[in-house]
Amino acid sequence: SLTAYTLLAKDRPSSRMRRGPGQPSRRYLELLRTGAREHGLPEAYQAWLAGLEAYRVGSLAQRVGQSLFSFTWMPWLMGSMLLNGFTARKGGVASPWSRALMESLFGAMWLSYDYGFRWVFGEGERAGA
Question: Are 62 and 121 in contact, with CB atoms under 8 Å apart?
Fold first, then answer.
């Protein structure tokens, strides 16, 4: 038996999706490829995964932006996750106020990226963009 957990998010158009999907990290892409192979998923899907290119940081500015973004947002993200862990309902379900807090936090993170970090440090979702 296999237990799987997933996160759900509201479906909203965003500027990120209008620019096209981002590229996965090398680590994430390898997890997908390994999982597809180990679970015997269709060859066509495995071939599609094999054709995807992982994102690579291409400049010093992007590396600096990546570090500053993490330094800025990681304490807030970890704090809200810890708070959610302490206040979650039975079965790990987040309370409405905790969901609203996380949604606001992720919204603020993406706004800071879309209208600040991306313009100052360069694209952080697609190589060569």
Answer: yes
